[in-house]
Amino acid sequence: MGQVQTVLGEIPSSDLGFVLPHEHVFHDVYELTMNSHMILSDVGVARKELTYLKDKGGDTIVDQTVHGLNGNPQALAEISADVGINIIAGTGFYWEKFHPLWLADMSEKQIIDLLVSDLTRGFEGTDVKAGMIGEIGTNHRGISAAEERVIRACAAAQREVGVVVSTHALFTRIGMAQAQAFADAGANLDKLVIGHVDTTPDVDYHEELVNFGVWIAYDSIGQLDKQSDEHRADAIVELIARGHRDRLLLSADIGKRGALESYGGKGYAVVITDFLPLLRERGVSETDIDALTKDNPQRLYS
Q1: How many CB atoms are closer than 10 A to CB 107?
Q2: Is residue 78 a part of any domain in this protein?
Q3: What are the phi and psi torsion angles at 197 (to 5°)?
């Protein structure tokens, strides 16, 4: 096992423990969404929520809040130290609607340099380093020229630094187009995660992605407007039966205030409290559950 960059420095990937590989601790996209639930900015609330997660068995959370979504890397480091939970911060750009205005004025080389700087020197104004690239977004209908340029830059930064890249691929088979675009750009597919595949309830599509050489993330757990958790659990049982357990990740992609325990939701621990019992009811073994929640993400980040 290798080393992984957290917001407090490098640790052995074997120390990651139980990992939620796609979440959001801080972001604020109110101006673009006009939805107050899309404001996660209260440091005190974030500290409580991650304490709840740790108390229920979570060890590591990956915050995939990228440029344009108004994250808070310095606060991530402070909370990680206070709570005693590992946090891996992401860098990159979401889908084009959420691109910061300044991105269009940057050359591709400048985008690469920014990503590499975030990963190796720290986010601007801090010494907090990103430990992965993501979530890299595209529209669900197709990849725009601006989004394709970001993909090329992310692939180049990944080649230089050797980190995990994770995407946003909602509702359609857009994940295959993303995987192909990253492959064409020279990315290391063994470190590429296609996210939100559970919002497209098609196990054959998920298998196609794995056979292409990438990882897949069932990372919208608890979001019942996209698919029921029962259907997610059934699909995971099928993927395990087809031999794909070791390329599968689980997370909840918490990104709305209403999903937090402080506001009446299930919180980051919904995977532990609500979803893993569904897998156990379907006969998924503890060995398989450990693979999905510990061994797989540790191997991905090694």
Answers
A1: 10
A2: yes
A3: -65, -25
Amino acid identity of residue 204, one-letter, is: D
Element (H, E) at 218: strand 215-218
Give the residue ranges of DSSP H helices in 162-300. Answer: 174-184, 203-212, 229-241, 270, 276-281, 286-290, 296-300
Residue 175 to residue 264: CA distance in whole angstroms: 32
Given a contact cutoff of 8 angstroms between Cβ atoms, the answer to whether 98 and 89 are in contact is: no
Average pLDDT score over residue span 275-299: 98
Domain that holds residue 258: 17-300
Q: Is 190 part of a structural domain of the chain?
A: yes
**Is the peptide bond prior to 207 cis by the omega test (within 30 degrees of 0)?**
no
Q: pLDDT above 70 covers what percent of the chain?
A: 100
DSSP per position, 60-124: EEEE---BTS---HHHHHHHHHHHT-EEEEEESB--GGG--GGGGGS-HHHHHHHHHHHHHT-ST
At 157, list the tokens.
Answer: 């930064």
| Cα(35)–Cα(14) distance, integer angstroms | 39
Strand pairing class (192-194; 165-168) = parallel
CATH number at residue 79: 3.20.20.140
Rounded to a whole number of angstroms, the distance between the first and last alpha carbons of the chain is 5
Indicate whether 232 pLDDT > 80. Answer: yes
Q: Does position 1 have pLDDT exceeding 80, yes or no?
A: no
User: How many whole angstroms separate alpha carbon 168 and alpha carbon 297?
Assistant: 17
Q: How confident is the model at residue 233 (pLDDT cuts 50, 70, 90)?
A: very high
Retrieve residue 237's tokens.
Answer: 């049982």
pLDDT tens readout for residues 45-69: 999 999 999 999 999 999 999 999 9
